[in-house]
Design brief:
The complex is a heterodimer of chains A (518) and B (104). Helix content of chain A is 39%, strand content 25%. In chain A, the strands form 4 sheets. A 5-stranded parallel sheet of chain A has the order 2-1-3-4-5, sandwiched between helices. A 5-stranded antiparallel sheet of chain A has the order 6-15-14-11-12. A 5-stranded antiparallel sheet of chain A has the order 7-8-9-10-13. The longest helix of chain A has 41 residues. Chain A is elongated. With 104 residues, chain B is α/β, with parallel strands linked by helices. Chain B has 3 helices and 5 strands, in the order ββαβαβαβ. Chain B is globular and about 30 Å long. The two termini of chain B are 18 Å apart. Classes of the chains: A alpha+beta (518), B alpha/beta (104). Chains A and B meet through helix 11, helix 12 and helix 13 of A and helix 2 and helix 3 of B.
């Protein structure tokens, strides 16, 4: 026979003395410590004294005096959800059974109770309680890890708030997305964005470990390519050594800025490409040209790009942003712009609930030494590439542009929206029809310079352009009703500034947004 | 499309929505079929664009071709416009010097 209490503590509540005595004898003999109560109030007092965390289960008659067993069961389910409960009754009415289960009981026993059913039900309920407590513990741990993660991400911003911005919306309490901005000796700085596979605690641990490892190696003078090499080997040989679990991988994008060398470098292993927008509104997409995440293959491939040595804003994001953009039918830039705007005005974007993954956007304003005067910081909304075969879906592209603009600038005026969309359409049709006639790509960029209340639209293609005198043709087009070049005339008329370069292969148009408050 | 020939020799051509590069060709076929069938009967052609919120350059070229067709037959053209952006487009491209623009 087991020593009393070895199996746990059971709280038995029944208004009938004989039932209480029976339960006490059976369960004590089975090795449980039994607390007996005849009413709900007595039961609560006993449990409070013993401590609810000590209870293995509660067994209660459904027809308690005073309030009834259903209320007591509901109360336990709400206040002490980890403690499993069993309902008993002399009635086997199906409705009663259903009610007791709806009230939170995990089992129902008919009276008169028999020893074997009672022991089995209490044994099962005790196991249920143990499982629920373990799950609750894990959830608390995950929440703690998530809180620490957010703290660490936030603290890395503390030193350089003016130049670095971050929006982080985790889907769960802890995950694999992380961003840090590190200042190094000699004025260098490195931004590191990582996305560890999975959404479990393991991902959060690996993420934090990797960030710490990179920080320590950078401070000891190791180069980013060498660091990525070591990280790749670590993931292959150590973190993923257990063949019974799915290997861990890390998508990482690191940006290094050395002001003394006037050098901005981007190293990418499987992360979404970064965007760099200069102070004229030109966007450069730093593509991920098929590099693998770290931890996939021993033959590591890192995309390495050197950016133009000019001042500009870098925008990085994890793949959760791209997934969300697909869902919303907008560009990834628009999602990033909308998130940064929402953060600035202190609201949460209502469409964030549609995200199926963590969403992280980071921005970094890089000021190149020697750049003087007011630097204009742009926020890209559209930065897309097209080829001649996209001409057939120009209506879809226009819809994408419209949705993206409305997401990033919900207050945009109807007139501005119309003019931007029409000019974008005209310019893109020209670029795709003529500039891409023998191949190549066209690029559509739309950026907002909020301080100047200006939207800048740039459309450029790889073609040779052609000479065109807008003034001369504008007059001819009207007086002689000629059809040619009407698109260019239209663009020039609708914009506040219209500039062509490369014989028209690049067109830059500015729209003053009166609706943006200064 | 609801086309009406009214008693005072005016032809009204109603356009169902935007006139863009992607639908201009189909619209052209229909509008010119109606124009040619009423050629001798009307002096004024009204194009009802009250349901259009955007007209691109290809759409403008279509409207210009209607103006040229009607003027060649000594007629005149009136555009009924329901959207201020479309009206601005016409005025900025100086189409209002070739046809009457009326807010509808």
């Amino acid at each position: 026979m087991l020593n009393s209490g070895d199996c746990g503590t059971v709280l038995a509540v029944d208004g009938d003395f004989l039932s209480r005595r029976f339960i006490d004898r059976v369960l004590t003999r089975a090795g449980y410590t039994v607390l007996l109560a005849s009413t709900e109030a007595e039961a609560k007092l006993l449990a409070r004294t013993a401590g609810y965390e000590s209870l293995s289960c509660v067994i209660t008659d459904f027809s308690l005096p005073e309030n009834g067993g259903a209320d007591f069961l509901c109360w336990i389910a709400q206040e002490h959800a980890c403690v499993a409960s069993i309902a008993t009754s002399g009635s086997s009415d199906k409705a009663l059974v259903e009610q007791s289960l709806r009230s939170g009981a995990c089992n129902f026993l008919n009276k008169p109770l028999d020893r074997f059913s009672l022991e089995q039900a209490v044994f099962d309920a005790s196991k249920h309680t143990t499982r629920k407590r373990r799950t609750a513990e894990i959830e608390r741990d995950v929440k703690q890890v998530g809180a620490v993660q957010r703290l660490l991400i936030g603290s890395s911003m503390a030193r350089d708030r003016a130049n670095v911005g971050l929006c982080f919306h985790p889907k769960r309490d802890a995950g694999g997305d992380f961003f840090s901005h590190l200042e190094l000796p000699g004025g260098r700085a490195v931004a590191l964005l990582t996305d560890v596979s999975g959404h479990e605690l393991k991902s959060a641990f690996v993420s934090a470990y990797f960030q710490g490892m990179v920080r320590a190696m950078l401070e000891s003078g190791l180069s980013l390519p060498a660091i990525f090499d070591r990280a790749n080997l670590f993931l292959l040989n150590e973190a993923s050594a257990n063949e019974d679990s799915v290997p861990v991988s890390i998508c990482a994008c690191a940006v290094s800025f050395d002001p003394a060398e006037r050098r901005i470098e981007v190293f990418n292993c499987g992360a979404p490409g970064a965007i760099f927008v200069n102070c004229s509104g030109d966007c450069l997409t730093v593509r991920n040209d098929g590099s693998y995440p770290l931890g996939w293959f021993p033959e590591k491939q890192v995309d390495h790009d050197v950016l133009p040595p000019v001042s500009g804003k870098l925008i990085l994001w994890t793949d959760g942003v791209e997934d969300l953009a697909d869902q919303l039918g907008v560009t990834s830039c628009a999602v990033a712009a909308a998130l940064m705007r929402a953060k600035e005005i202190g609201v949460e974007a209502p469409w964030l609930g549609k995200a199926s993954d963590d969403v992280l956007v980071a921005t970094w304003k890089i000021e190149m030494p020697g750049d003087e005067g007011d630097l204009v910081w742009y926020r890209p909304i559209i930065n897309e590439h097209f080829s001649a075969r996209d001409l057939d879906r120009i209506d879809d592209i226009q819809l994408l542009a419209r949705n993206s603009l409305l997401l990033a600038m919900p207050d945009i005026g109807e007139e501005t929206l119309h003019d931007v969309l029409l000019c974008a359409r005209e310019a893109l049709i020209n670029a795709l029809s003529h500039g891409c006639a023998v191949g190549g790509q066209a690029k559509l960029e739309l950026c907002l310079a909020a301080e100047r209340r200006t939207l800048t639209l740039i459309v450029q293609d790889d073609g040779p352009g052609h000479e065109f005198d807008c003034d001369e043709h504008a007059a001819t087009a009207t007086s002689q009703l000629t059809a040619r070049h009407r698109g260019l005339i239209l663009m020039r008329a609708l914009t506040d500034r219209f500039k062509t370069e490369r014989r028209g292969a690049k067109v830059t148009m500015d729209f003053l947004c009166k609706e943006i408050e200064k | 499309m609801n086309d009406k020939i009214t008693e005072d020799a005016r032809l009204t051509l109603a356009v169902p929505g935007d006139i863009l590069s992607t639908n201009a060709e189909d619209l052209r076929a229909k509008l010119f079929a109606d124009l040619k069938s009423a050629d001798a009967a009307c002096g004024l052609v009204e194009v009802d664009l009250s349901r259009a919120s955007m007209v691109d350059s290809v759409g403008l070229n279509l409207l210009v071709s209607i103006i040229k067709h009607v003027k060649a037959r000594s007629g005149s053209v009136r555009f009924l416009v329901g959207n201020s952006n479309v009206e601005r487009t016409f005025r900025f491209t100086r189409l209002d010097s070739q046809a009457e623009i009326v807010r509808h």
